[in-house]
Specification:
The protein is α+β, with helices and mostly antiparallel strands and 306 residues long. Helices cover 21% and strands 31% of the residues. The chain contains seven helices and 20 strands. It folds into two domains: 121 residues, lpxc deacetylase, domain 1 (Ribosomal Protein S5, domain 2), CATH 3.30.230.20; 174 residues, lpxc deacetylase, domain 1 (2-Layer Sandwich). The strands form five sheets. Strands 11, 12, 13, 14, 15, 19 and 20 form a seven-stranded mixed beta sheet that branches. A five-stranded mixed beta sheet has the order 2-3-9-4-5. The model has no long low-confidence stretch (mean pLDDT 93).
Length: 306
């Protein structure tokens, strides 16, 4: 069955790039509604934006969606990952600015908020996108690929010159509560040199050592260090989870990312849906639903430090 929240969850913070305060309310929605954003600070006729792959606009540092009225919402990947990881299929997300609050730089505040409000079943079956054949996109040394699989699996590999990051790789079967247990508390990360360059260009104005893991050479500058020894690759998997949920439903397939980012994952979805032989929409059986991310997740699945 499809799911939605029992009651609205409220999140307040600042945008990572703008530094501006923002209030976001994730409200329950009816079955088959999907995930939509609503800008409460603009005229109502231009306010709605569907969280869908073909509404993504080019952005190197985050995932941004935009409607035909040129109204946008950016940095949506963490809340989208939390929705996917909690098996929430229908929600109206009201936001009073153009950027989702960064909070602690991970998805765990969203997951905590959703689980605190509770999740309820709706009397409609879940429809998922089943991958039928391999689809791959590349850009230089980076690549993103989808292959057939019975459930969502994510493989990711990253490589950075910084000794504190280096080469990291991880594979996960995302069935049930794996996202909440393994990925949701992993924070966005960057190099100190990136922070200085972005802020010089008017970006990352809301970035701090409290909402991102900042590296410099072999050092972790953020207080408290890492939440996981391989936190960077886990965060990349978190991002991929959120970006893949813009497919319009859960994906039954294996995603492989090698040095991939938001733009490449969106290119992958565009390539997938451009090939009718590469995918099909299926109504999930009870057995398949049991393998979807987030099914049966509870507060005990949250990381101990969350």
């Amino acid at each position: 069955m499809q799911n939605t929240l029992k009651s609205a969850a409220v999140f307040e913070g600042q945008g990572l790039h703008s530094g501006a305060p923002v209030r976001m309310v994730v409200r329950p929605a009816s079955a088959n509604f999907g995930i939509w954003f609503k800008r409460t600070d603009v005229e109502s006729r231009h306010a709605l934006i569907p969280a869908y792959w073909d509404r993504v606009t080019p952005s190197r540092l985050c995932t941004e969606i935009r409607n035909a009225g040129d109204i946008s919402v950016s940095t949506i990947e963490h809340v989208m990952a939390a929705l996917a990881g909690c098996a929430i299929h229908n929600a109206m997300i009201e936001i009073d600015g153009p950027e989702v609050p960064i909070l602690d730089g991970s998805a765990v505040p969203f997951v905590q908020g959703f689980l605190a409000r509770g999740i309820i079943e709706q009397a409609e079956p879940v429809r998922a996108i089943r991958i039928l054949k391999a689809v791959e996109v590349t850009e230089g040394a980076a690549s993103a690929r989808l292959d057939p699989a019975d459930m969502l699996e994510i493989d990711f590999r990253i490589q950075f010159d910084e000794a504190a990051i280096g080469t990291q790789e991880k594979s996960l079967n995302l069935a049930n509560g794996a996202f909440v247990r393994e990925l949701c508390d992993s924070r966005t990360f960057c190099r100190m040199s990136d922070v200085e360059l972005m802020q010089a260009n008017g970006l990352a104005l809301g970035g701090t050592l409290e909402n991102a893991v900042v590296f410099e050479g072999d050092r972790v500058l953020s207080p408290g260090g890492l939440r996981h020894a391989d936190e960077p690759v886990r965060h990349k998997m978190l991002d991929a989870m959120g970006d893949l949920y813009l497919a319009g439903g859960p994906i039954l397939g294996r995603y492989t990312g090698i040095r991939a980012g938001h733009a490449l994952t969106n290119r992958l979805l565009r390539a997938l849906f451009a090939d009718p032989e590469a995918w099909t929409m299926v109504e999930c059986s009870a057995q398949t639903v049991g393998k979807l991310p987030g099914v049966g997740v509870c507060r005990n699945d949250l990381p101990a430090k969350a």
